[in-house]
Design goal:
Helix content is about 35%, strand content about 15%. With about 400 residues, it is an alpha/beta fold. The strands form 4 sheets. A 7-stranded mixed beta sheet has the order 4-10-9-8-7-5-6, with helices on both faces. A 4-stranded antiparallel beta sheet has the order 11-12-15-14, with helices on one face. A two-stranded antiparallel ribbon has the order 1-3. The structure holds pyridoxal-5'-phosphate. It holds the Pfam family KYNU_C.
């Protein structure tokens, strides 16, 4: 078994170690929940303050032009594009993941008239399934069908208009084969929509090279944009020329929003997927976190993510009552480790009381996210030791650890 000293040696040789200085983390906390809410970048408060006090407070409405507020959704989109392997003009930052999925899924159905089935993963993050229900509910005859994501092929008939899948499963951390699945879906005449919420900033994502038609993703997980920070959407360039229409045809997607014309005429390009005024304070926080991402080498991030998850798995796999649910194969693993334990909820609460913050997903999964920019090998070693102690001592049985909050 690897020792703590050996982990310290790995930290000393870690090419990403200096990124820790870019984040503010409270002392005494080992943060393994960056897959749910990323940590605070050091520069974010200053950037948000400047937007509030200077751009808003002093410059007032002039900032729409002078501070580039109007351009901000595109500017941030161009900066996220390289993180997901998209061309700069294929991506825009706006709204939330759920709202963006509503927009691209409806656009996909419009691109496949005569087909009326949407396939989704029955175990997907439920908001994606709820949105698919909402969209198909508006189209007479349309339906959404839940399948096993590993085998959508059996259901790919001439009725399927679109398939919606998560690149990395939010519960198990399983990574799907984006290019392979996309090719099979498209060979059946359907369109492929990827949800990259759990892969952007966590694993390499190649939307354009994979041939993906559409994608949505959020920025408050591995991208550290802050609670409720705006999401993004991707539309393959081939769909932008003539361009499918999305249903939330608000003025920001209009060709000339400030002409205030009564009829809707969509913008050319990705801009037609915008709806409303951007939430500029949220976008300001995201802007600061992207400054950090621009300096991070993506291959180094992936290598460290695999090293940290390998390390954690090796340290906890033999603990009593624990089953490692996350795939062992590197090409099937995201940047989190899910452990099944019959009493997962109180065990996670007992860990949080010790300062090791992970989370729990019903019915029995403990989730631990590994964020290579601000986590060290030594912290992973310490977290595993805390888990072993919590299990061996039975301290999780204290009844205060079984009380449930609204958010788990
Ligand atoms: C986090 C997450 C979302 C979040 O949706 P919001 O609309 O931003 O609340 C959606 N889908 C997946 C797969 C997620 O992991």
């Amino acid at each position: 078994m690897i020792t703590r000293e050996e982990c310290a040696a790995l930290d000393a040789a870690d090419p990403l170690a200096a990124f820790r200085e870019d984040f503010t983390l409270p002392p005494g906390v080992i943060y393994l929940d960056g897959n749910s809410l990323g940590a605070l970048p050091v520069r974010t408060p200053e950037r948000v303050r400047a937007v509030v006090e200077e751009e808003w407070g002093r410059e007032l409405i002039r900032s729409w032009n002078d501070a580039g507020w109007f351009e901000q959704p595109y500017r941030l989109g161009r900066r996220i594009a390289p993180l997901v392997g998209a061309a700069p003009e294929e991506l825009v930052v706006c709204d939330t993941t759920s709202v963006n999925l509503f927009k691209v899924l409806t656009a996909a159905l419009r691109l496949r008239p005569g087909r009326s089935t949407v396939l989704g993963d029955g175990a997907a993050f439920p908001t994606d399934l709820y949105i698919a229900e909402g969209v198909t509910g508006m189209v007479p005859g349309a339906r959404s069908l839940l399948v096993d994501p590993a085998e959508p092929d059996a259901h790919l008939d001439g009725e399927v208009a679109a398939v919606v899948l998560s690149h990395v499963d939010y519960r198990t951390g399983e990574l799907l084969d984006m290019p392979g699945i996309t090719a099979r879906v498209q060979a059946a005449g359907a369109l492929m929509i990827w949800d990259v919420c759990h892969s952007v900033g966590a694993v390499p994502v190649e939307l354009t090279a994979s041939g993906a038609d559409f994608a949505v993703g959020c920025t408050y997980k591995y991208l550290n944009g802050g609670p409720g920070s705006p999401a993004f959407l991707y539309v393959a360039e081939r769909h932008l020329a003539a361009g499918p229409l999305q249903p939330l045809s608000g003025w920001f997607g209009h060709a000339r929003p400030f002409a205030f014309e009564p009829g809707y005429e969509p913008k050319a390009g990705i801009g037609r997927f915008l709806t409303s005024s951007p939430s500029l304070l949220g976008q300001a926080a995201l802007e600061a976190s992207l400054d950090v991402w621009e300096r991070a080498d993506r291959a180094a991030v992936r290598a460290k993510s695999l090293a940290l998850t390998d390390l954690f798995i090796s340290l906890v796999e033999d603990l009593d009552g624990i089953e490692v649910v996350t795939p062992r194969e590197h090409d099937r693993r995201g940047s989190q480790v899910a452990l099944r334990h019959a009493d997962g909820y109180p065990v996670v609460q007992a860990l949080i009381a010790r300062g090791v913050i992970g989370d729990f997903r019903a019915p029995d999964l403990m989730r631990f996210g590994f964020t290579p920019l601000y986590l060290s090998h030594t912290e992973v070693w310490d977290a595993a030791r805390h888990l072993a102690e919590v299990l061996e001592s039975g301290e999780w049985k204290d009844e205060r650890f079984s009380r449930r909050g609204e958010v788990t």
